[in-house]
Amino acid sequence: MKLATYKDGSRDGQLVVVSRDLQTAHYATHIANRLQQVLDDWNYLSPQLQDLSDALNSNKARHAFPFDAAQCMAPLPRAYQWADGSAYLNHVELVRKARGAEVPESFYTDPLMYQGGSDDFLGPCDPIVAVNEDIGIDFEAEVAVITGDLPLGCTAERALDGIRLVMLANDVSLRNLIPAELAKGFGFVQSKPATAFSPVAVTPDELGDAWIKGRVHLPLQSTWNGRKVGMCEAGPDMTFHFGQLIAHLCKTRNVRAGSVIGSGTVSNIGVTKGTGDKARTDWPKGYSCIAEKRAMETIQDGAATTEFMRFGDTIRLEMKGRDGASVFGAIEQEVVPMAQVMSRRAAREAATAGTAIANQESAITDTPTPDPHFVQN
């Protein structure tokens, strides 16, 4: 089944079931209002949602309506935790090679992972808000999963059984803030703003034979300012599958239902042609983040030329099945300056305040004048 969360003015939105072709949806209010409710009681509530999904896909749901991704929040608008891995070691190798650094041997057996902010996820069409253009605004096309409850010491095999839903993520990074933060030795904070997620999260069975042992074997397409820059295969070059990433997180703690785990930037190994001084490596599948493109340029030509994102830039991330249909819907975002957002917010607040004052004045005007001849007994 496919699930989404519609905006309703609250922090957690309203749970909807979405048809397989992403054309129609149905509120799940009679089953659960929010996705976290379902994750907390999966064995009881998910079969009921599956029945609704089956009815929707067979055109038998009486109150179905056209699905609109622009009305979506993140499938799980706020989560108990967001842990993002770096499961594609090719990405790590490229970035480190570009700056002349070796990849430690431990990286090939012990996954990289950081703990990100999970209190304010972005919907698929929410803007990427930045203070200025000098901070190195970058997109990162990723796959992510939402888990059920998993115990401390959970194995990779058991962790796979605990995966409830799969979705896409844009783990926005502010590249020019990263070096100073990492130099402190405490990891990312300011350099990792809010993450955006696809309109729809799907149960692994919706992926069919594209879901193999914790990997999604489908291409993830990245389109920057209308130009396709990446068509990276999410399956074959994923060094650590999702079960291994979750087991890494569970090594010293429980992982609770509603935890979100990211794959890291989807990345594919390059193709080297020629030998010796004439050898040249190309990456025909493109890239899933600008930092990787800049690393490719540095390795090939000695310097990076591609700039990071600017105000007004757009990014679209989408994964299509083997039938050519969108699986999760698309993440479509525009980079906007914080000043613009603050200005709009101030205008809305002023309009709201003006309406409130007008209503108060109207109430005063409409108050009837007491009859001076009326005597109360």
Protein described:
With 377 residues, the chain is of the alpha+beta class. It has two domains: 73 residues, no CATH class; 269 residues, Alpha-Beta Complex (Fumarylacetoacetate hydrolase, domain 2). Helices cover 24% and strands 24% of the residues. The protein contains eight helices and 22 strands. The strands form six sheets. It has a six-stranded mixed β-sheet with strand order 6-5-18-9-10-12. The protein has a five-stranded antiparallel β-sheet with strand order 4-3-2-1-13. It has a five-stranded mixed β-sheet with strand order 7-22-21-16-17. A hairpin with a 7-residue loop joins strand 1 and strand 2. Helix 3 packs across helix 7. The relative contact order is 0.16.
**Which structural class best describes the helix and strand composition?**
alpha+beta
Q: Low-confidence parts, pLDDT < 50 over ≥5 residues?
A: none
Identify the CATH architecture of the largest domain: Alpha-Beta Complex
Strand content: 15-25%
Q: State the end-to-end CA separation.
A: 69 Å
Overall 3D geometry? globular
Total separate domains: 2
According to CATH, what is the topology of the largest domain?
Answer: Fumarylacetoacetate hydrolase, domain 2
CATH class of the largest domain: Alpha Beta
Mean pLDDT: 94
Rg over C-alpha atoms, rounded to the nearest angstrom: 24 Å
Major sheet: arrangement of strands:
6-5-18-9-10-12
Number of helices: 8
| CATH evolutionary superfamily of the largest domain | Fumarylacetoacetase-like, C-terminal domain
Q: Please give the share of residues in helix.
A: 10-25%
